[in-house]
Amino acid sequence: MSSQDAQPDSLQRFLLKGAPVRGEIVSLDGAWRQVVERHQLPECVRDCLGELSAAALLLAASLKFDGSLVLQIHGDGPVALLVVECDAVGSFRSTVKIREDATIAEDATLTELVNVNGRGRFVVTLDPRTRTPSRQPYQGIVPFEGRTVADVLEHYMTRSEQVPTRLWLAADGSRAAGLLLQRLPDEGGHASAGSTDPDGWNRLCLLADTVSRDELVALAAPDVLRRLFWQEPLHGFDQRDCRFACRCSRDKVIAMLQMLGREEIESILTERESVEVHCEFCNLAYRFDAVDAARLFVPGAHHTAPDIPQ
Questions:
Q1: CA atoms within a 13 Å half-sphere pointing along the CA-CB vector of 12
Q2: Of 88, 34, 93, which is closest to residue 246 (Cα–Cα)?
Q3: Rounded to an integer, what distance in angstroms lies between the CA atom of residue 172 and that of residue 233?
Q4: Residue 114 CB neighbours (<10 A)
Q5: Could you please report the per-residue DSSP string of the chain?
Q6: C-alpha 89: how far from its chain's center?
Q7: Among 60, 183, 189, 205, which residue has the least CB neighbours within 10 Å?
C-alpha cells in the first residue's frame, strides 16, 4: 500500500484499486489506556467498550459535517449503558454505567451484559456542532441484534444505510483496534460492468475474516494490512491521529449549576458540605463549597477552585 505506515493512536483509510471497496483501520494505544485508567471495569465490559470506541472512530471518519457521532448500547442486564462520543477528526471519549450490585461473570458475553431480557437497544446520534433549520440532530434507534459489537453495528448499517459494511473489532487493557470494509456503489449509484475487479468486495471480506482478535490487538495496523491483503492493490490515503478528549470543563459545570438556580443549590448545601458534579467520561470531580456556590450567582465573579481527579 503506497502510504506512510500508520502510527499508534491513528486511523488510516484505504481503497481497493479497480473496485468500489473502501476500508479503514484504527489502532488505539495510549488514547485507549487513558480511558482504561479512568474506570475500574470488569475485563469483559472494558473490552466491549474498547470495541465500541474503535467502531465509533471508524464510522465517524466518513462524517461529512462538523459535529459528533454518539454510539450507545442501552442494556437491560448488569450493564445499563455503553456510550462513545467522537468526531470526524479523531477525538473521542467513552464510558459505561453498571447497575448497582450487578454481578458480572468474567467471561460474560455482550448479550449477557446488555440484552438479558431482550430489551437492549442500539442508538446512533449525529449531533452537528452548529444547528440550523436544515441541520438538526439525528437519532436512530434499533433493537439489539447480534452477539458482538461488530454484529450490532453491521445490522444497524444494513438497516439504515443500505451500505454493505463489515467490521472486525478487538480490545484488551492496553489496546483497542478495528478494521472496517464497505462495498460502495460505482458511479451512478449502482454497480457497473466497467469495474475491473467485480469480486473485490467478496475477496477482501474473506481475507479479513481470517484475522483473529489476538492479531488485531497484538499487531500494528500496517502489519495487520500486510498480513491480510499483501497481494491486493490497496491505495492508502488520509491518515489521522486519534486522541482521548473529554469535553467537560468547569465553565460548563458552572453554567449548569446556574441554570439550577440559587434555591436548588442552597438546598443541596443544607444536606452536604459541597456541591459535587462528577464527569463520567474523564472521572474528574468539580466541587463547590458554600463560598464557591455563593459566588456562582455574583456577576463577574471568578471561579478558581481546583478540580479533583477521582
A1: 24
A2: 93
A3: 31
A4: 26
A5: --SPPPPSSEEEEEEETTSSEEEEEEEESHHHHHHHHH----HHHHHHHHHHHHHHHHHHTT--SSEEEEEEEE-SSSEEEEEEEEETTSEEEEEEEE-TT----TT--HHHHH-TTS--EEEEEEEESS-BTTB--EEEEEE--SSSHHHHHHHHHHHHT---EEEEEEE-SS-EEEEEEEE---TTSS--TT-S-TTHHHHHHHHHTT--HHHHHHS-HHHHHHHHHTTS-EEEEEEEE-EE-----HHHHHHHHHHH-HHHHHHHHTTSSEEEEE-TTT-EEEEEEHHHHHHTTSTT----PPPEE-
A6: 13
A7: 189
**Using an 8 Å Cβ cutoff, are 154 and 166 in contact?**
yes
CA 76 to chain centre: 20
Give the model confidence (pLDDT) of 179-232 as tens digits: 999 998 765 545 444 467 888 999 999 999 999 999 999 999 999 999 999 998
- Distance separating alpha carbons of residues 167 and 150, to the nearest angstrom: 5
Query: Domain extents for the chain?
Result: 10-244, 250-309
* CA–CA dist 68, 292 (Å, integer): 32
Single-letter amino acid code for the residue at 222: P
Sign of CA dihedral 297, 265, 256, 90: positive
pTM for the whole thing? 0.86
Cβ 51 vs Cβ 32: under 8 Å: no
State the virtual CA torsion across 6, 10, 15, 20 in degrees, nearest 10: 160
Alpha-carbon 305 to chain mean position: 31
- Which CATH number is 10-244 given? 3.55.30.10
Q: What is the CATH number of domain 250-309?
A: 3.90.1280.10
* Identity of the residue numbered 58: L
Q: Which residue has the cell 488485531?
A: 216
Q: What is the pLDDT of residues 225-267, one digit of tens each?
A: 999 999 988 887 788 999 999 888 888 888 888 888 888 888 8
